TrEMBL record:
PROSITE patterns: VOC. Pfam families: Glyoxalase_6. Signal peptide: none annotated. GO terms for molecular function: dioxygenase activity. Keywords: Dioxygenase, Oxidoreductase. The lineage of its organism: Bacteria, Bacillati, Actinomycetota, Actinomycetes, Micromonosporales. This is Catechol 2,3-dioxygenase. It comes from Micromonospora phaseoli. Residues 6-126 form the VOC domain.
Length: 126
């Protein structure tokens, strides 16, 4: 398939009722810096560049349910975070303010929830 022009994925946006608070959680979790901070939009970028994370205020935010349940707000996406030490990464995530999801579908992955309920997976890269 040929793309008519260069397209570059630059940022993944997460809806949140409090962009600054959620951005600070992910900045601590990932060791990233806040690049832009405005009242309704905060952007993080990793030290090596690449795809960033943006946190945008959603006044009608509904916390997602994990795992999905009929009739309840479902997650629309989740982040995959590769780690070398699953136990150490989970301890760090919990210290940052994440919670361990009750349902864990795989032995080499830990599903966590950020403070707003967005699921993210810590998975062994090696």
């Amino acid at each position: 398939m040929t793309v008519p022009t260069r397209l570059a994925l630059t940022t993944v946006n997460l809806d949140t009722p409090d962009p600054a608070a959620l951005a600070r959680f992910y900045a601590r979790l990932l060791g990233w810096d806040i690049e832009v901070e405005e009242a309704d939009d905060v952007i993080l970028r990793g030290p090596d560049g690449g795809v960033g994370l943006s946190f945008q205020r959603e006044r009608a935010y509904a916390r997602p349910t994990w795992p999905a349940e009929p009739g309840r707000q479902q997650m629309m996406m989740h982040l995959e975070i590769g780690v070398e030490d699953l136990v150490a990464a989970l301890d760090h995530a919990l210290a940052c303010g994440a919670t361990l999801a009750e349902f864990q579908p795989q032995d080499d992955v830990r599903v966590c929830l950020d403070p707003d309920g967005h699921p993210f997976c810590l998975w062994l890269t090696g």
